[in-house]
Design brief:
heterotrimer; A mainly alpha; B mainly alpha; C mainly alpha; B: mainly alpha; 6 helices; C: mainly alpha
């Protein structure tokens, strides 16, 4: 089987399993909603959320992604699927790409529903260009899923299991949070001219982050997934 | 090896002490170019920057040793990688400490969300994760494997974090170019002497930790003999 | 200068305390390990006799 078809098979397997139970997308979506309600109470009587719109969105998404990332491997490990995958003649990096794309799809689905909801319910609006906004979200999502998949494979093989993931994932994903917040804040605020420069450099750093960690994951996944 | 460690430690200490003496006795008190006032707390720099650079070097070394371990599968590289992370972490704590002192002396607050210090805070959190991860793994071989992988991931993340944090506009002006580029004459001499002293000190500490590895290795072999 | 002095002194003292403390702890551990090694190798020798 070629590399592309191997990856495709793993993604398909994850999607079929998800369609059957729907547990991941539903729980992630409910979690995002709950965080939104928590924000409302946490900020008291504030009605104008626009100055920190990006921050709200990304804190919510980062923690939501944590939920999904933990789930994606706990599942495999508990039901012995991981052993099956490792025994099958699939290249190890392809397992990584398959799991990563699966996580990416689920996170994106949740975001497609959650972003409009956040915009409506917190009275936010995108003043800048919408394609740029989407590009920022996609770039951040790739980073989140690459690093998250790599680290959740590590954490699932330790005794602490899903307890460990936040401890190593949150500091390592901090560049994503910073850049995502900077870029989405800028775009949602509709800044132009000189003030737009940080938005561009944030997106560049996001792209660099994605590429670097894709390479790192490709090179190191063999060692991570077990021998 | 023991001799080399002692000599390095000696050279390092002497150089560091010379650096301190030079900084306080010979180098003049720096003057803020903006306000023209004397800035005594600039003397912190002679230790703060060498410590920071040593810790960064240490983290990079940890990643290099990690990669060597994955490539050659020799336990000594894992031990060196662990030792480098440990030392880098300790030096990082010193960076935070001296940085906070600087903040307090310069701006009257203990903590400023200033780019470099914030980067270090995230670094410290990242490498705390390293220790937590290692302690929650049972087998030694997995410990070493994941330790090496994590050391590499963390080292790749260091420059990215640094550039990302610089995006956020800093509230306070930077008084001095703390890369050391703005230093001249006696100030530069004091700085370089401390820098070299710190490097020697660091190498001797790393070698001491490495010596421990040899002994514990022998212990393991003996224990296996008795057990078997 | 006067109000900045304690911080500068604090920094230099603190660094030395931490560094020397580390040297002390590591050497302590090392000598502990060596002692253990010595005792064990003696025990092994006895056993082999």
């Amino acid at each position: 089987m070629s590399g592309g078809r191997q990856i495709g098979a793993i993604v398909k397997k994850d999607i079929i399993a998800e369609l059957r139970t729907k547990e991941m997308v539903v729980s992630m979506f409910l979690f995002v909603l709950l965080i939104m309600v928590a924000f409302h109470y946490g900020f008291g009587t504030t009605t104008d959320f626009s100055p920190f719109a990006g921050g709200l969105i990304w804190i919510a998404f980062l923690f939501t992604s944590l939920l999904g990332l933990n789930r994606s491997f706990v599942h495999e490990k508990d039901e012995g699927c991981l052993e099956g995958l490792l025994l099958s003649p699939v290249d190890r990096p392809n397992i990584f790409f398959g799991k990563m794309i699966g996580n990416f799809i689920f996170l994106t689905i949740v975001e497609i529903i959650a972003v409009p909801l956040y915009l409506v319910m917190l009275n936010l609006s995108i003043r800048g260009s919408v394609p740029m906004f989407i590009l920022a979200i996609v770039l951040s999502n790739i980073g989140i899923c690459v690093v998250g998949t790599l680290l959740s494979t590590i954490s699932i093989n330790t005794k602490m299991r899903d307890m460990l993931l936040p401890l190593i994932y949150l500091p390592i994903s901090s560049p994503i949070l910073i850049c995502a917040v900077t870029s989405t804040n800028g775009i949602m605020g509709g800044v132009t001219g000189e003030k737009f420069a940080p938005v561009i450099s944030a997106m560049k750093i996001l792209a660099a982050y994605d590429i670097m960690f894709l390479l790192v994951a490709y090179a190191l996944y063999d060692f991570v997934i077990g021998e | 090896m023991k001799k080399a460690i002692t000599i390095l430690l000696g050279i390092g200490s002497v150089l560091l002490l010379t650096g301190i003496a030079y900084a306080f006795l010979v180098a003049p008190i720096a003057v803020d170019p903006n306000t023209g006032k004397e800035v005594f707390h600039q003397k912190i720099l002679y230790f703060h920057v060498p410590v920071a650079e040593t810790s960064l070097v240490s983290f990079i070394l940890a990643a290099v040793f990690g990669a060597l371990f994955l490539y050659k599968r020799e336990r000594k590289y894992d031990f060196l990688s662990l030792a480098a992370v440990e030392l880098g972490f300790m030096y990082g704590l010193l960076v935070e400490m001296t940085g906070m002192m600087w903040d307090k002396a310069a701006w009257g607050v203990w903590w400023q969300w200033e780019p470099r210090l914030t980067t270090y805070l995230i670094l410290m959190l990242m490498y705390s994760g390293y220790f937590v991860m290692r302690s929650s793994i049972g087998e030694d071989s997995t410990k070493a494997r994941f330790g090496a992988v994590y050391a590499i991931i963390a080292a790749v993340n260091v420059p990215l974090t640094f550039f990302a944090i610089r995006l956020i506009p800093s509230i306070h002006p930077i008084l001095f170019d703390s890369s050391g580029a703005g230093l001249e004459g006696p100030l530069l001499v004091a700085f370089l002497v401390s820098m070299f002293g710190m490097t020697f000190f660091y190498v001797s500490l790393l070698l001491t930790r490495y010596q421990m590895f040899g002994v514990s290795e022998e212990l393991d072999i003996l224990k296996n003999q008795i057990g078997g | 200068m006067k109000d900045q002095l304690p911080y500068v002194v604090g920094v230099y003292m603190g660094i030395w305390v931490v560094l020397l403390g580390y040297v002390f702890i590591v050497n302590n551990k090392l000598s502990g390990l060596k002692k253990e090694l010595g005792a064990l190798s003696k025990a092994v020798e006895k056993k082999n006799k």
